[in-house]
């Protein structure tokens, strides 16, 4: 790793990979499996969530291939039920929820606040092991009969009637919950007590604020789904009746408890992505972020209000009309802090010196897709309209715009943005831009037709459909294959760049965050001297240490990387 | 100053370390509140649906054993608090002694719980295929007082008249009884394990007035588990005693 490589721009400085850093400070499998270094644990998470992303992706591919013809030609109806269930379980519980917090959050939170590590490094490692154990339970369920309840595990289907391997799956998700809880606990404590001198609350990067808000949901939401799914498991194993109407239980109670976590879980997925976008936008617009405190506060507001909207998933399951009105109103409220973010990002772009590097492409893609996903969420929060589009492909399209268009775009944008920090080397810029564009186009082609399908009345979770829906379904499948290419390309060139990428030095963009003040890759203890923060966040105008004077004069520096 | 091994590498000062540990424990306890919260919610709803069955179920519990356990747990909280105090003022022997007392009281609680569970098992009150709310009055043991059995039978008949599905609904009560007390007992067992470790550490003289964070943190946890029982006891044992 330590052969110096030069960039092709003659004036650009030639950087070397530092002699000792977190990747080469010790060797061998034990040094990884027993590590307490948050950066190494982040990489362990990176590998494991990527694995589950591909597991979930294979199921998605099979679903899309199956739906190319009205009758469905790939699998039986029973298998189809299992496919969309396992797709949901793998993607939500084992990819989306841990993705940004456990990979990027783990890597960056201590670096961004100037700490040596998280407050509880051993607990951090423990939470990865818990994740792996939970994952093994779920893989066991997938490979011994699968799972056909939908990722929502509605009772009494999941607790009584389903013949698939529900018990190991709910136990796996129960166990995995503690991984989330411990990660959230670690972040909250770290952000409270481990900040470097001068790193006040309102100098924290917005990514850290987003992680803090997410952690609140981890801590207060996850235990509820844990106990609820444990009860489902106990019901199956011991013939109990908490949620079984035949034994006096109440299935609606299950739905309330389930959504009490699972709606805030949507904000677990999107909030960290919003944090990533808040870092990328000012860096590539070369401007201080507009409305810092509003963006920070809106993260907390989303986390808090998010706990009071859950029953909008149940407008059609017989809740009182007054409850429905209240939940509809509260769901509209979430739109306010979300819109605050979007408006602040766009205001930051206004009159900025925008450059089109890959992270920025992802960030701009995020804003557009999140806008569509968020606004269609308002359609669904509307009581009258929801009766028409409830349980149709409109819902499927809506939440994929938030989770894939939002969370995954944010995740990939973040991976690219911090890749030079993580690996010390730059990805190939041209290829990365191309694949970001492929991803954006593939995504829209996959999911936009589903809005129309849903509006026309195609129900979700059906293995067949009337022939007049075929054109839109084929479009969606075609889009999915483009999307798959958009995911495979970064996989390949990021691995390639580990050996052949340009060495970038500590701050290639350059960006203002504290994480850019240390080596790339950082040393095990993050900072050789504890940094002291004397500047305001996102100061892209006056920070002397960033050599920004030529930017203020209106000229952009040549990119520090050489592949485009 | 601190001795080697007391300050972990990621912290700058002992104070920061202690603050982190305390905040971490409080955050963990807030998670625990929500964890038990799901069960309390299920309890509240079902008790609202089936007041008769919950009354019948509650009356089968042994008030004396439950009361005894409540006293034991409150005492154990006292000894735990004393141990935290002793570690603060640097009384090493007393720290360990009070920890041992806490452990003994905790074990006594679990012992009583085993007796109670055994009774319920004998009376076919464990949820599952063999659950039968009137098993005891149908199959009285020789040592049972016939009058008591007769009174109980009458009460059950009244209850069946009010709630024909009494058996299923009482089973829900017992599912919650075993779920909630079982989860609580599990927390006690984990706490007891931590106490064993703590006793060993305090005997080795690890705790000083400047460094006693583990005693304090495990103390917090122990008090939390006690408080859960303070809620469980009335909700499970006392809801229908006024008749």
What's the name of the CATH homologous superfamily of chain A? Cytochrome c oxidase-like, subunit I domain
Mean pLDDT of chain A: 92
The N- to C-terminal Cα distance of chain A equals 23 Å
Radius of gyration of chain B: 22 Å
The total number of structural domains of chain A is 1
- Using the CA coordinates, give the radius of gyration of chain A: 23 Å
The main pleated sheet of chain B reads as: none
Order of helices and strands of chain B: HHHHHHHH
In the CATH scheme, the class of chain B would be Mainly Alpha
For the largest beta-sheet of chain A, the strand count, sense and barrel status come to: none
CATH T-level fold name of chain A:
Cytochrome C Oxidase, Chain A
Question: Strand content of the residues of chain B, in percent?
Answer: under 5%
The CATH topology of chain B is given as Four Helix Bundle (Hemerythrin (Met), subunit A)
Question: How much helix is in the residues of chain B?
Answer: over 70%
How many domains, in number, for the residues of chain B? 1
Shape of chain A: globular
> Which ranges of chain A are low-confidence, i.e. pLDDT below 50, for 5 or more consecutive residues?
1-10, 549-564
Secondary-structure element sequence of chain A? HHHHHHHHHHHHHHHH
User: Globular, elongated, flat, extended or rod-shaped: what is the shape of chain B?
Assistant: elongated
């Amino acid at each position: 790793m330590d052969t110096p490589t030069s960039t092709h721009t003659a004036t650009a400085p030639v950087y070397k990979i530092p002699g000792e850093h977190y990747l080469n400070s010790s060797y061998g499998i034990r040094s990884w499996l027993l590590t307490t270094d948050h950066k190494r644990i982040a990489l362990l998470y990176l590998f494991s969530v990527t694995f589950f992303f591909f597991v979930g992706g294979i199921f998605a591919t099979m679903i899309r291939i199956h739906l190319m013809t009205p009758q469905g030609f790939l699998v039986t109806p029973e298998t189809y039920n299992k496919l969309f269930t396992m797709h949901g379980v793998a993607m939500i519980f084992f990819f989306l929820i841990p993705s940004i917090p456990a990979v990027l959050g783990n890597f960056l939170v201590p670096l961004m606040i100037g700490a040596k590590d998280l407050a509880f490094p051993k607990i951090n490692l423990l939470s990865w092991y818990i994740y792996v154990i939970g994952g093994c339970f779920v893989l066991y369920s997938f490979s011994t009969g699968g799972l056909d309840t939908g990722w929502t595990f509605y009772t009494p289907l999941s607790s009584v009637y389903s013949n698939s391997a529900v018990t190991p799956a709910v136990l796996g998700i129960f166990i995995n919950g503690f991984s989330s809880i411990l990660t959230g606990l670690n972040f909250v404590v770290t952000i409270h007590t481990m900040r470097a001198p001068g790193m006040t609350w309102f100098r924290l990067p917005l990514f850290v604020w987003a992680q803090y808000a997410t952690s609140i949901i981890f801590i207060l939401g996850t235990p509820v789904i844990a106990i609820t799914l444990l009860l489902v498991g106990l019901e199956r194993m011991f013939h109990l009746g908490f949620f079984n109407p035949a034994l006096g239980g109440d299935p609606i109670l299950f739905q309330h408890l389930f959504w009490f976590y699972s709606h805030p879980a949507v904000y677990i997925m999107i909030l960290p992505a919003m944090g990533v976008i808040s870092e990328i936008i000012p860096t590539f617009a070369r401007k201080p972020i507009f409305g810092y405190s509003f963006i920070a506060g809106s993260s907390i507001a989303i986390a808090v209000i998010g706990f009071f909207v859950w029953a909008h998933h149940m407008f059609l399951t017989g809740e009182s009309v007054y409850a429905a009105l209240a939940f509809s109103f509260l769901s509209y409220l979430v739109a306010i802090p979300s819109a605050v973010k979007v408006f602040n990002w766009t205001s930051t772009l206004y009159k900025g010196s925008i450059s089109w590097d890959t992270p920025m492409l992802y960030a701009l893609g995020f804003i557009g897709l999140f806008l569509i996903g968020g606004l269609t969420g308002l359609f669904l929060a509307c009581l009258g309209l929801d009766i028409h589009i409830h349980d149709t492909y409109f819902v499927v399209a809506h939440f994929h715009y938030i989770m894939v268009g939002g969370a995954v775009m944010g995740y990939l944008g973040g991976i690219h943005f911090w890749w030079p920090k993580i690996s010390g080397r730059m990805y190939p810029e041209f290829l990365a831009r191309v694949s970001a564009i492929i991803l954006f186009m593939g995504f829209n082609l996959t999911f936009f037709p589903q809005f129309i399908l849903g509006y026309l009345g195609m129900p979700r979770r059906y293995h067949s459909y009337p022939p007049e829906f075929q054109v839109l379904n084929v479009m969606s499948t075609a889009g999915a294959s483009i999307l798959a290419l958009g995911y495979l390309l970064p996989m390949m060139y990021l691995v390639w760049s580990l050996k052949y990428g340009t060495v970038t030095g500590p701050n290639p963009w350059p960006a203002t965050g504290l994480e850019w003040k240390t080596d790339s890759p950082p040393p095990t203890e993050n900072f050789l001297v504890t940094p002291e923060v004397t500047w305001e966040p996102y100061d892209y105008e006056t920070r002397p240490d960033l050599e920004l004077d030529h930017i203020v004069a209106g000229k952009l520096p040549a990119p520090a990387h050489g592949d485009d | 100053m601190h001795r080697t091994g007391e300050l972990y590498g990621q912290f700058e000062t002992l104070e920061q370390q202690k603050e982190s540990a305390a905040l971490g424990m409080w955050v963990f306890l807030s998670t625990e509140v929500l964890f038990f919260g799901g069960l309390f919610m299920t309890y509240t709803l079902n008790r609202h649906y089936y007041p008769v069955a919950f009354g019948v179920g509650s009356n089968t519990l042994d008030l004396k054993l439950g009361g005894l356990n409540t006293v034991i747990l409150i005492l154990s909280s006292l000894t735990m608090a004393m141990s935290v105090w002793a570690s603060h003022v640097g009384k090493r022997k007393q720290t360990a002694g009070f920890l041992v007392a806490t452990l003994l009281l905790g074990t006594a609680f679990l012992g009583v719980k085993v007796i109670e569970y055994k009774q319920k098992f004998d009376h076919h009150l464990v949820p599952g295929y063999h659950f039968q709310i009137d098993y005891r009055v149908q199959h009285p043991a020789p040592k049972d007082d016939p009058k008591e059995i007769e009174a109980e039978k009458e009460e059950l008949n009244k209850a069946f008249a009010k709630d024909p599905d009494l058996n299923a609904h009482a089973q829900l009560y017992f599912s919650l009884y075993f779920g909630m007390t079982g989860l609580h007992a599990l927390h006690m067992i984990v706490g007891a394990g931590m106490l064993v470790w703590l006793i060993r550490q305090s005997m080795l003289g690890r705790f000083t007035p400047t460094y006693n964070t583990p005693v304090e943190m495990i103390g917090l946890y122990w008090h939390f588990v006690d408080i859960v029982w303070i809620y469980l006891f009335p909700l499970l044992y006392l809801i229908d005693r006024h008749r």
